[in-house]
Amino acid sequence: NVYIKTFDGKAATTEDFINSVIKGAYNGEENCDFDVDKFKNWYYQSGTPKVYVTQEWDSNNSILNVSFEQKLDIENTYDLKEMVIPILYSCYSNEKDKQAIVEDNLFVLDKNIKKLKINLSPGVKSAPVLSIFRGFSSPVIWESDLSIDDYIFLFLNDNDYFIKWDSGQFLIREIIKSRLELQANYSLENKFVNAIKQTIKNVGSKDPFYLATLLTIPGLTELESLIEKVDPIAIYKESLNFKVAIG
Prior knowledge:
By secondary structure, this protein is α+β, with helices and mostly antiparallel strands. Helix content is about 40%, strand content about 20%. The strands form two sheets. A four-stranded mixed beta sheet has the order 5-2-1-7, with no helix packed on it. The protein has a three-stranded antiparallel beta sheet with strand order 4-3-6. Helix 5 (about 150-155) packs parallel to helix 7 and helix 6 (about 160-180) packs antiparallel against helix 7 (about 185-205). The model has no long low-confidence stretch (mean pLDDT about 90).
């Protein structure tokens, strides 16, 4: 609204658009709690940012230490500029209740490397399961040290639709990649099929459209990007075979 009111019928720049959106969202730029110039780097740098996430669990103090690092795969790395990357996150208890113990907090990654300390209730001994980029809070590619069991947990228990879907897509990619490398991970396949059975019971009648989305196999182009020597026919066959296995 601020942008249209200010620039309707006038010439405007990218900067005008960004500043208007921020002014409208924060009721004035001076109230903005992040570096606007760093945010503009989204428009000035080409390529999709990658975020690398590593965790360290301090069981003695019930603290989850998380490190975030942002990178861009471009040739002139000396000219890289830090970007503002909003990361919406939650933490789930790995105990029987599987409840969210930290829910929908916002962490802003605005440096090349930035650390987050998540303090949990004293006495929590098991590392929680971290759910990051909830609601696709940033258009980035990310890699984390979450385990296969963590992804299964998120697929079954996360209350964020995007994270449930993304976790399922990760697991399907891992399964098909293992098949293509002739190292089929049947243990993972069985876990995932059991997770699908449980999801059908929980989601099927309530939201069949979302269930169908959850079970959609990644496209061939996406699967091709997982391996160095691309064999389109083999990828098609293994993708089809896995669909049959799910069926």
